């Protein structure tokens, strides 16, 4: 039997259309649309695509969406100055600085920059004030990717309360907030990482398995309890033919797509898991589109919080 595929594109479109009346009402009430300011430093190819998708989705929803681009040679002070400008802007309710920042800015640059964003405009939910609020289950801005996973589970009628959930990955952006959101919905949560012994055996206890490690095909069928829901947060652009050969058999459509293009976007979950899981998110077209939808939801929430309801 093959797993039910959880369609992130369709759900993202639905969530974005549900946001439309709120955006229109805000615009009518305040004489301006909700505004998102994005700062992109350098020219990382994947980041450029992500940022383009975010700007396009915000504009399509009738939001203001501005991109501030800085060269890879920008200094930390120049990045911080852009954040300060957006913090003070009356037209921008949400601020997002695309991660990763260039390594030339130093090992702590992302932390310094995220700490500078006004927590009320922190639509990524990365500021320590918002992280603390999330841990204490207070209303706050929550990172879009784990929020999108919850939306996908809830709207696919996959029970969270009482479920055993295993999150593989302990990043600030996905793993930790994901675990908190599942915990707050009464799942019993285990966080695994690269130093976890017997990782596959622990993963195989999960009713809900979330993979967020950034290693193509890392989650193989032995990690998966039959019938479990498997959420694949990994997005890796693979250019190594040997990696593709491990994932897809000869003649597979995706292997042929790789041969034509020279690269392929793949997730953390091996395709063979589809024969074991009960439900599975595809890559691409699973969690990725939901991250964008939840970002826009956060921009509208931030706008309504800052200006206040009429
Ligand atoms: N890079 C990868 N994912 C994200 C995200 O959700 N927010 C930001 N700012 N950068 C990212």
Strand order, main sheet: write it out: 1-11-8-7-5-6
Mean pLDDT: 96
Q: What percent of residues are in strands?
A: 5-15%
* CATH architectural label of the largest domain: 3-Layer(aba) Sandwich
How much helicity do the residues have?
A: 40-55%
CATH class of the largest domain: Alpha Beta
Number of strands: 11
Question: Can you describe this structure?
Answer:
This protein has 310 residues and is α/β, with parallel strands linked by helices. The chain has two domains: 30-118, Rossmann fold (3-Layer(aba) Sandwich), CATH 3.40.50.10860; 144-288, 3-Layer(aba) Sandwich (Rossmann fold), CATH 3.40.50.720. Helix content is 43%, strand content 15%. It has eleven helices and eleven strands. The strands form three sheets. A six-stranded parallel sheet has the order 1-11-8-7-5-6. α7 links the parallel β5 (164-168) and β6. α2 packs across α11 and α6 packs across α11 (287-307). The protein starts with a strand and ends with a helix. The model has no long low-confidence stretch (mean pLDDT 96). It binds guanine (GUN). The site of guanine has 9 residues, from β4 and α6.
